[in-house]
Each structure stands twice: as C-alpha cells, then as structure tokens.
Write a structure and sequence with these properties.
With about 500 residues, the protein is of the alpha/beta class. The protein is built from 11 helices and 29 strands. The strands form 5 sheets. Strands 1, 2, 8, 9, 10, 11, 19 and 20 form an 8-stranded mixed β-sheet that branches. An 8-stranded mixed β-sheet has the order 6-5-14-15-16-12-18-21, sandwiched between helices. The two termini are about 30 Å apart.
C-alpha cells in the first residue's frame, strides 16, 4: 500500500479535529480508533469560546451550537441552605469576540459534529500495536478484527489519550502524579423532580454533588466528590444515597446510569511533544483536572496548531514551532488547574471553575519564532496574539465579519494602505468604497480598532487564526521574508 501523509491514532475530539483540518487541505491520512464505535458518555462537556472559533473555521460550529447551551447558569445551594445563582446574565457580545461564553454540550456531541460535519471516516476497532521510524516515515502495525496490517506514513500523531500507546512506544516520559485523595463519580443519568434550567450544585460536609442538564439529551451529568474512605460504587443505589445525603432531598430520583466512570486526579505533562516523525496531541501530551473545562479544548487547539504545519509540507521551522508553542500553553493550564485542584482537596469539593481565565481567548504565541512585528511592548495587539474578529465589513458582495472572510485555514493579509505584499496571497485591502474582490470597507471602525491599525499597517494572520506578523510601517518585504523563512507558499 502507498505511503500516506499522516496516521492519526485516536478519534476523540483531538484526533477528529486534526483529521478535519487535514481533510479540507487535501492531505492524505488515516484515522484509527481502538474502541469498536463512537464512545458513549458526556465526559468533557464545556466547549470554550476559542474552541468555538476553531469549529467556526472548520465549518461545524452551527452543528455544535445546535446541540448545546451557551452560558448555562449555576445554582449553588450552600451547606447552610442558602442559594446563589451565577451566570444568569450571560457575558455581553463584543465586536472582536463572536462567542462570549462557554457552551455546555456532551463530548459525544462534539465528536459527532466533527465526524459528520467534517465528513471524516474513522476506522473503529483498529488498534495500534507498534511502530518503527526511518528517515522517510513511520511503519505502524495495526490490528482490526484479528488481522494485522502495516501502515506506512510520513508522520504519526498520537491522539490516543492518557494511556497513549504512541507516547509510551516513542519513549516520551509523562511527568506528573496521580492523586488518589481526589476522586469523583461521573455518570449520565435520567432525573425526575429537577428542572433543566440551571446547573445544580449542593455543598455538604461530605463533599460537593452536582447535576448538570445535558442539552440535546434527556439526561443530566451527575458528579460527586469521593473522599478517601467514602463509597465509590458506581451503581444506582450509591449514587442515589449520596445525592440524598448531600442535598437533604428525597424528591429527586435518579435512574440507572447510561454511562458512569470513577475519575481520579491525574495531572501530567509529556516531557516533549515530538520524537522524530511522531507527535503527541491532546490527552496523550497533557492531562488536567476538570477545573474550568480545559482538557478537551486544549487538545482541540493542539490539533488546530499542528494541522496546517503538517499540511504545509512540514518545513522544519513550522514543525519545530509546534512543541515550542503548545507545550507552554499546556503547562500553564496544568498550573492553573493544579492550583484549583489543591483548593478542591482542601475544601472537599469538585474542582469546577468558570471565569475569564478559562475561555482560552488569551492564549498567545507572542514568544514564538513565528511572531514578528515592529510594535513596542505597550501595544494591545502583538504578533502571536489571537487574531480578533470584526463585524461590519462592507464588501462588493455584502456585509461580512472578518471571521467570514478568513474562514478556511489559509494565510490572510489585511492591508490598511501598504503596498501589495505577495501575488496569490488571500489579501483584503481596506478602502473607503469597495468595488471589487478583496476590497473591504471598515464601516464601523471595528477592524482598525481591533488591530490598532494605522494608515500603512499590514497584518498577516496565520491559518490557525493567530497573528503572524504586523508591520505598522507597511513593509511588504517583511511579509514575503516571513513566509519564505517558514517555508510556506501562503496557501
């Protein structure tokens, strides 16, 4: 069989995102998954604003939004019986942020949207058993229904979770610890006697218990902290007993779980993200506590960062930037979730947190070799930052948002008055009266405000929606040199 470009091991949200990105770029790949079919269970249920922007670019955000709920309120009942509800008023929309709040939706819905919306074929029931590397590629042995096949690929990406076979066989250490003192029962249950208007939480001396209605389903996600010495039985009788004891209510009735799991605090980070022609992404590279719903989202964005770099022909400058950009992000998320996990241990609670620090909109690559600008340190937007959106852009075809124009995962040049930088590059020139293709009018001034643009500014936006280069001097040669330096044809 002919060599393919990429073999992806693991078809969770990370592997599926990578597959969708490669598919739209015409990159050959195979996506294998050891389990026999789509995984049941809600598991991760929070989709952050930055991830929604990724899904927007991939063309599946409407499908994801249709099966979720934005900014679900949280109703907290304290141990003294007092009730506090937060999040009743969702964050106000901003011109530069089209999705201002996180979305609650079960993880299986996210996977479904990626498979269907991206028209991605998953080879379920196919297990990677081993691989060997050469200077030209990877030779991987996989087994399906007892039959062994050898797949040869230029690159192997391990998206196969915390117990990653790819990571282990690549000899990459997974540094961190498992904290047995923090455990949590997680289950999907039907519930009688409780409304679906809020995420319900109850504090108790024994620990927190909560029931979160899962949009587009008839069930709730049940979570209960399990301290050392407490019963961690996943059967219905124990779930019901824990709920009654901690809520003081007997009118809420649970039904047998459709899915259940005992979660243990496992906080780890791969020593490196690459070994030759093998890369790691998602839980194979980092495992977090559930504080703030960061794990699935961080993995999706790993894949989004890596996809265009592999598709660009894998120049060394781009491949080297993957670990340099993404590992510090995971380390930062781990530090944040670890702090909240420590607090949860102290307070005998579930490490749930939701605030501006969890949206992932502030993630940036400002220290990356792929970030260049001629601005000073006080500028509110620098190369390496997330490229903000802007509504109210008039084009010859009608009004658009910037994200409408940049969708598709290509380099995009915003020209606020500088000389043309490159033939063949997707370029939008800001003019007073757009008359032809590639001309836009910033009718409300949102675009210039978001990018701090002057009359000569050039902004190069990377395929993954981050600013690669800014030249307020309008230096077109800097754009050409940037692209040449990373070995990209700007496609």
């Amino acid at each position: 069989m002919a060599m393919i470009d990429v073999l992806i091991a693991g078809a969770g949200p990370t592997g599926l995102t990578l597959a969708c990105d490669l598919a739209r770029r015409g990159v050959s790949f195979r996506l294998i998954e050891a389990v026999p079919g789509p995984r049941p269970g809600s598991r991760g249920k929070g989709v952050q604003p930055r991830t929604l922007e990724v899904f927007d670019d991939l063309g599946i955000v409407d499908r994801v939004l249709a099966h979720g709920r934005m900014a679900m309120p949280i109703r907290m009942v304290a141990s003294d019986g007092s009730v506090t509800t937060v999040g009743v008023e969702p964050p106000r929309p901003r011109p530069d942020i089209p999705y201002p709040a996180s979305l609650i939706t079960p993880e299986w819905r996210v996977e479904e949207a990626l498979r269907l919306g991206g028209a991605v074929e998953v080879e379920f029931g196919t297990t990677l058993t081993g691989f060997e590397q050469t200077g030209e590629g990877v030779s991987a042995a996989v087994v399906n229904d007892g039959v062994t096949e050898t797949i040869t690929a230029r690159w192997l990406v391990g998206c196969d979770g915390g117990h990653s076979t790819v990571r282990k066989q690549a000899g990459i250490a997974f540094e961190g610890e498992t904290r047995e003192e923090v455990r949590m029962i997680v289950a999907d249950v039907a519930v009688d006697g409780l409304d679906r208007d809020s995420w319900h939480m109850w504090q108790h001396a024994d620990g927190l218990v909560n029931l979160c209605p899962l949009p587009s389903t008839g069930v709730f996600q049940y979570q209960a902290a399990v301290a050392p010495g407490q019963d961690a039985d996943l059967r219905l009788a124990n779930l019901q007993a824990v709920l009654e004891r901690r809520t003081g209510r007997t009118d809420i009735r649970l039904h047998a779980p459709a899915w259940s799991s005992l979660w243990r605090a496992n906080v780890r980070l791969a020593e490196r993200y690459r070994a030759g022609r093998v890369f790691l992404a998602g839980d194979a590279a980092h495992i977090h506590s559930p504080a703030g719903g960061q794990g699935m989202n961080t993995g999706v964005q790993d894949a989004y960062n890596l996809g265009w770099k592999l598709a660009a022909g894998a120049p060394a400058a781009l491949l080297g930037s993957y670990e340099a950009e993404r590992r510090p992000v995971a380390a930062g998320v781990l530090a944040l979730s670890d702090e909240r996990l420590a607090r949860a241990i102290e307070q005998q609670s579930i490490p749930i947190h939701r605030d501006a620090s969890t949206t992932q909109l502030a993630v940036n690559y400002c220290g990356s070799a792929l970030a260049r600008d001629d601005r000073d340190d006080t500028a509110p937007l620098r190369a390496g930052d997330r490229a903000p959106d802007a509504p109210g852009l008039a084009t010859a075809e009608g009004e658009r948002r910037l994200f409408d124009l940049t969708r598709g995962g290509r380099f995009t040049l915003l020209d606020f008055g500088g000389a043309p930088a490159s033939d063949g590059m997707r370029t939008f020139r800001v003019v007073a009266d757009p008359a032809g293709p590639g001309e836009i009018a910033d009718t409300a001034g949102h675009l210039a405000a978001a990018y701090g643009a002057g009359g000569r500014t050039l902004v190069l936006i990377r395929p993954d929606g981050y600013v690669g280069l800014i030249s307020d001097a309008g230096d077109a040669s800097a754009v050409r040199e940037y692209l040449a330096g990373i070995g990209s044809d700007a496609g």
